[in-house]
Specification:
about 70 residues; two-stranded antiparallel ribbon; about 15% helix
Length: about 70
Amino acid sequence: MAREGKLVLPDLSGAAFVPVEVFQEPTPVAEPTPPQQTLDLIKGDITIRLDAGTPAMRIAEIVAAL
């Protein structure tokens, strides 16, 4: 029967099937953080390092102030 793709189980007295229960919550996998990108504004001896996600309007304000 197994050669025909049918499941063959021994006839065991007292054997019972029970549903499987999972007691532990799966642990979430942390996504790798991308490398932090920065933007450097340099004027003379002054260096201002900003996050690459800084809005363009804020960068323009800082440059105008320099």
